């Protein structure tokens, strides 16, 4: 087999983190998430909020991309984007999604499944104007996921809008926030010999139930 064949079967990595026991897990998965998130922020504050957002069209075709978590609480996990982007269109067709956080240095990941809803426009308005001016300009001129002839065209639009409105950028109506309301969490801790620790929280009529899963 040639060196450029892409055969990765001999690529190995060992997980050496401490184990995860049921007694380590909080009764509330949002509290457990907050604990792990705080640790991730200490380890890599510049990347802890990066998460994979997986959506699917009404036909079931999945797609995934990295977005940034902007706030979370007992009501859900929120991010901001263009409602007319590919992910926005898919969420309009199928308002169910999964978030996935992976923190390499900690050998941990968290998956969160649930339904997605739009945030109140006032939250989008407040966050939009809290962003750096350059980010506001980029969001205002870009119809995310739509084709464009060149980067120069985008830069020209930014410059034109900057000249026209200065530092008073109007939030486009197509731009705002989403919140995933969780129905299932999975906390994964890498362990030696691939005998990983996995715990699943599932929402029932009586509250959250916690189950250990096989690796």
Number of strands: 9
Structural class: alpha+beta
Write the CATH architecture name of the domain at 22-124 and 176-213.
Roll
**Number of helical segments?**
5
CATH topology of the domain at 22-124 and 176-213: Pnp Oxidase, Chain A
Average pLDDT rating = 94
> What string gives the helices and strands in order?
HEEEEHEEHHHEEE
| CATH homologous superfamily label of the domain at 22-124 and 176-213 | Electron Transport, Fmn-binding Protein, Chain A
Taking all Cα atoms into account, the compactness measure Rg is: 20 Å
Main sheet makeup: 9 strands, antiparallel
Report the β-strand fraction as a percent range: 25-35%
The gross shape turns out to be: globular
CATH class of the domain at 22-124 and 176-213: Mainly Beta
Query: How helical, in percent, are the residues?
Result: 25-40%
Q: What distance lies between the first and last C-alpha atoms, to the nearest angstrom?
A: 32 Å
Flag low-confidence runs.
Answer: none
Describe, in plain words, how this protein is organized in 3D.
The protein is of the alpha+beta class and 215 residues long. It has a domain at 22-124 and 176-213: Electron Transport, Fmn-binding Protein, Chain A (Pnp Oxidase, Chain A), CATH 2.30.110.10. It is 27% helix and 34% strand. It starts with 28 loop residues before the first helix and ends with a strand. The mean pLDDT is 94. Catalyzes the oxidation of either pyridoxine 5'-phosphate (PNP) or pyridoxamine 5'-phosphate (PMP) into pyridoxal 5'-phosphate (PLP). Residues 175-215 form the Pyridoxine 5'-phosphate oxidase dimerisation C-terminal domain. Keywords: Flavoprotein, FMN, Oxidoreductase, Pyridoxine biosynthesis.
